[in-house]
Amino acid sequence: MERDLLFSAQEPQNATSAGSNIPEYSVGAISSAIKRVLEGSFGRVRVRGEITEMKRYASGHIYLSLKDEGGKIAGVIWRGNASRLGMAPENGTEVIATGRISSYGERSSYQLIIERMEFAGEGAMLARIEALRVRLRDEGLFAPERKKPIPSLPHRVGVITSRSGAVLHDICTTIARRFPREILLWPVAVQGEGAAQQIAHAVKAMGQLPHPPDVLIVARGGGSLEDLMAFNDEAVVRAVAACPLPVISAVGHETDTTLVDYAADRRAPTPTAAAEMAVPVRSELVADLAHRAARLSSGLVGILQKQSLQLQAMAARMPDLPSLLDTARMRLDDRAQRLELALPGFVMRARARLGGAAFHLPAMETVLGQRHRLLEGQAGRLQAGWERFWQGCQMRLMRMPLQIGVIQGQCAVQRERLVGVARHLEAVSPRAVLERGYVLVQDAKGRPVTHAAALPQGGIVQLAFVDGARQAKLEPHEGGAGRSGIVPSTREKTTIASAQREDTQGELGL
Prior knowledge:
This protein is 50% helix and 18% strand. By secondary structure, it is of the alpha/beta class. The strands form three sheets. It has a five-stranded mixed beta barrel.
């Protein structure tokens, strides 16, 4: 019966050989028959095994093999199914592949055309998640120093979650109840095909907005481990770790833990708790502000009361200023009255002391007579001493033998010394300079004038000649402005002219 089903669609190409009832078929016919049997007998199947020999080609097709302890089967994922696979296949991962069995006649092989793939149980998924966690931890993506602080009062809250579902409703109602803030939603698929790519893109795009939110919540409801696998994807974890915004993860229930929880800045057990972490309670803030304002007001009142008491105490210790002024004024009046009464008495007493001193002084004639007699005595003693000195000199000269040659020599030496000193004095004498035709110019106070600018125009100067002095007045020089000349006064001009005429007559008479 199976034989009839296998070859019913195609007759043998040649007649049966002599002496044998086994028909003869071509390779293509038998390959097509085998393909029909495989595809018709198995249909869609689920195969469990470990991925090995996986290769991804530029065309987008993925070729791999599934193996276990008993065998190995080849598999292929066409490009159209690769994006809807549900996971990223990797070598060494134990999976359950769903597809259909087909054969490839040109190579006489059969293969599994995979349409969907999932992890083979939670054990395999947990092992893969743990290996990824260790690798990302070693890279430093979960380091505490990378965590960013959550703002105390954000103006805008970003939410990445599914548009439908209770998660978004819980977050919105919690924020509206605690402190209404602007909510920026980026809807994504939280499970299934392409969920990881959408979440990673949403996290990156939120940080690149022109007006990004102050805090970002990545959330979804509870589910199985397979439902939460999108939040264990490496691309999602790296996007959360690199996000410039503070990120709060709220994935699943309190007992659920994903790799996004390690990379986020804060982890919330539920989406409602994430909303509570993002915004404070407005009523609590108002109450806290009121409490602080009351404490501040009471503190200021206490400080003012304390300062007022201190001011009152200091004012009580200070003396009364009007009474001080009155006392000082009375003391001043008393001193002035006493001064008026005491001044005449003081003058009278001073005059009395002066008269008593004058009475005790000797008379002027007596003092002068005493001084005169003292001077006469001193003059007599000086005259007697000088006479005795002169007589002694004469006696010594008379006793000394006189030598005319020695005396003449000493006189000649002293005469030559005196002549030299006289010549030196004549050389440095101002009179010698004046004899050479120079004139000494002095101002009205007798100070020498060395510069023309030292005296104003019209000033009076003294001209000292070798034979006398003349007075002159300064006038502007005819050669140009700024220079002054000495012009004798009218009387001096007459005297100088007369002198010049006398000199001329004398020269002519000679």
